[in-house]
Amino acid sequence: MSDLVIANGTVVLPDGPRQADVLISGETIEAIVDAGTGQGAERVDATGRIVLPGGVDPHVHLMVGFMGQRSIYDFESGGIAALRGGTTTIVDFALQRRGGSILSGFRHRRKQADPVVTLDYGLHQIITDVNADTLGELAALRAEGVASLKVYMIYEEDGLKVEDGALYALMQQAARDELMLVLHAENAGIIERLRAEAVAAGHTHPRWHARTRPPITEIEAISRAILFCEDTGCPVHILHLVAGQAIDLIEAARRKGLPVTAETCTHYLALDESALERPNPHEYVMSPPLRSTANQAMLWEGLKRGVLNAVTSDEVSYSAAAKAMGAASFATIANGCTGIEARLPVLYTLGVAEGRISLQRFAELFSTWPADIFGFGDSKGRIAPGYDADLAVIDPQKKRVIGKDTDYGDVGYNPYEGMELTGWASETIYRGKVTVRDGEFLGTPGQGRFLRRANAKRPQL
Ligand code: URP
Ligand code: ZN
Question: Looking at ligand 1, which atom is closest to the CA of residue 59?
Fold first, then answer.
């Protein structure tokens, strides 16, 4: 007899959904058997429900300070929010401070996370200072299990931007040390000029955040990143892509055989620039900005065609008060929004329930491809024997209106406020244990583990 059986669900297997039982032994998926035939010491009845591979969210900022504000979620509470939303693995960020060492930034992040983290996590290493010493640290960083370096092509005022010469040198060394680059790709020069002009003209409303970051700023930066990838051989993943025209660039690069992948985020699929005309427009300031509804259709197309391979949250849990603090001018509002918990019901509702993508493609975007691209694909992202028993059981019938009170903790606002959603997780199973049931966390702080990452497996077009 197995330790746990998830019985009678529609199980989203790598080759498609099927009525089945999932048998779990210890932390591992033991077998998939015909529905109703499995025996387990413990049983979750998944009749009428869908059983998904646990979510993998590879773009999460927990416990972060940026633009003068601090986020609410740490590795305990943010992990619980993720688990409530069916996500069992995240990739967060370690920061190299300018003038500081990469490895000490990495070790600092592990110290913050390891004692309390409630789900499995990997780290991208943010690089802010490229010099001979830091380039010399990359091989040791890779040996610690970090497989990706994050570079901001913007945000000089926050001490984050890496200019082109340094980025190019970093990519040359990263290629040698088998690291990939994950990029916040926006053209700093154009944005800085447009921002300064807008502020000087007294245009401070949050709508100017979007107007000073037109699509060309993303498109140019992404095309530069692809050229650098081609020349240096360093694989590139484009974070939070929203400019639909850039999808063609990603596709052309992939067709040339370049190691280029890209994601979009939940908020870009659910929201458009009209949110910046709502009574609380500062809550919709994130970078890159919300764009048009026509653009949104291009993102769905890119997801359907397999050019965009992940939908991530880009979680940053600034509180409602923190977002409001800078509201006097678009230039002072802390960029980013929460979404780690909403990723599942928002993507399921807009994608599967509303008929834009299949259930299979949903599981790939929510879990399988992020696991493969970020080096967890041998243990996460699939319901298959030998894989970690990380699962989300969702109810495709139950409808619920999302709002600030449906999220875990005290963020105090919800960018998806008022949307009627389905696909909420009734149970999340983490390493073979039911860790969330009906929103209640049943696990313990510190149960999560740091994941040492393998090299990427990139999806083919
Ligand atoms: O607006 C955003 N995306 N905030 C989070 C930080 C970043 O740029 O990734
Ligand atoms: Zn970013």
Answer: 9
In the predicted model, is pLDDT for residue 149 greater than 90?
yes
> pLDDT digits over 185-223, tens only?
999 999 999 999 999 999 999 999 999 999 999 999 999
Q: What is the CATH number of the domain that holds 296?
A: 3.20.20.140
Residue 133 has pLDDT above 90, yes or no: yes
Distances (CA, A) of 384 to 85, 86, 378: 21, 18, 10
Q: Is the pLDDT of residue 329 over 90?
A: yes
Structure tokens belonging to residue 227: 């050229």
Structural domain of residue 179, as residue ranges? 55-373
Residue 67 pLDDT = 85
Ligand 1 atom with the shortest distance to the CA of 316: 5
**Pocket residues for ligand 1 (CB within 6 Å)?**
61, 184, 240, 286-287, 314, 316, 335-336
Q: Best of 59, 60, 61 to mutate for ligand 1, by most ligand atoms within 8 A of CB? A: 61
CB atoms within 10 A of CB 259: 17
CA distances from 319 to 72, 187, 291, 324, 419 (A): 6, 28, 23, 8, 20
Distance (angstroms) between ligand 2 centre and the Cα of 184 equals: 5
What distance in angstroms lies between residue 286's CA and the mean position of ligand 1's atoms? 6
Report how far ligand 1's centroid is from the alpha carbon of 264 (Å).
12
| Structure confidence at residue 68 (pLDDT) | 87
pLDDT > 90? residue 400? yes
**Same-domain pairing of 16 and 120:** no
233-245: pLDDT as tens digits: 999 999 999 999 9
CATH number of the structural domain spanning residue 29: 2.30.40.10
Task: Indicate the top mutation candidate among 314, 318, 333 to test ligand 1's pocket, ranked by most ligand atoms within 8 A of CB.
Answer: 314
Q: In whole angstroms, how far apart are CA 275 and each of 101, 242, 271, 315?
A: 40, 15, 7, 18
Q: Is 443 helix (H, G, I), strand (E, B) or coil?
A: coil
Domain assignment present for 254: yes
Q: Which ligand is nearest to the CA of 155?
A: 1
Residue 354: predicted pLDDT = 98
- Tens of pLDDT, residues 336-388: 999 999 999 999 999 999 999 999 999 999 999 999 999 999 999 999 999 99
Nearby residues of 48 by Cβ (< 8 Å), 6 or more positions away: 395, 396, 397
Residue 334: inside a domain: yes
Number of domains in the chain: 2
Does residue 456 lie in a domain region? no
CB 49 within 8 A of CB 89: no
